[in-house]
Amino acid sequence: VKVLLETIFEFPEIQFSVKLRLGWDSPEEAQALLPFLNGLPLTHLTLHPRIGTQQYKGKTDLSAFSRFYDSCTLPLFYNGDIRTLPDIRSLTGRFPRLKGIMIGRGLLSSPWLATEYISDTPLTAQEKIEKLSAFHALLLAGYSSRLEGGEHQVLDKMKTLWDYLLPDAEKRLRKKILKSSRLVDYQEAVRNLIYDTSITAGQ
Q1: 52-85 pLDDT per residue, tens
Q2: pLDDT at 196
Q3: Which of helix, strand or coil describes residue 175?
Q4: Which of 37, 50, 105, 150 sits between 20 and 30 A of 57, alpha carbons compared?
Q5: CA atoms of 163 and 149, how far apart (whole Å)
Q6: Are 186 and 168 in contact (CB under 8 A)?
Q7: Is the pTM of this model over 0.85?
Q8: Which residues of 9-33 are buried (b: 16+ CB within 10 A; e: fewer)?
Q9: DSSP character for 13?
């Protein structure tokens, strides 16, 4: 790893950042590497506080993240299991020197989360529906304009979104989306799910 990262010095005209986990087998692996990372000309580091063997299972290790945070001299971003505005507030309160937060699956499951963070105000159920509808419409239009395989290819792409989006939605409504074989049926099923306000009211 060190040999690879040392090549950064050969390209001073390029900006580099590093995203890493706590390690592969042990949370101490990233900690051991940190003195070396601190000496690199990186714009920032992003740390996901799990080990590689966990994949996305189990809990994030905030104690290990805290140790890394205390010793890190580079701008540091947090990534991992951020699903709600209180999650963000908790992290920024506990780690005030963070330069940012990276959100992946949490933003796919709750597309309004970034808006809530910027405004520092939870959205109403109706506002969430509007944000979700706009997000879904933009994504569908983008796939429809770029993919050349017809509506079945668009459907295949759109259905992958539902691996993450609104995980607590009613199973019956999600099943209709995933079983849709025509775009018109898919769109109707999505409308039925989105406007089932119970799915957004509690998030």
Answers
A1: 999 989 999 999 999 999 999 999 999 999 999 9
A2: 77
A3: helix
A4: 37
A5: 22
A6: no
A7: no
A8: eeeeeeeeebebbbbeeebebbbeb
A9: T
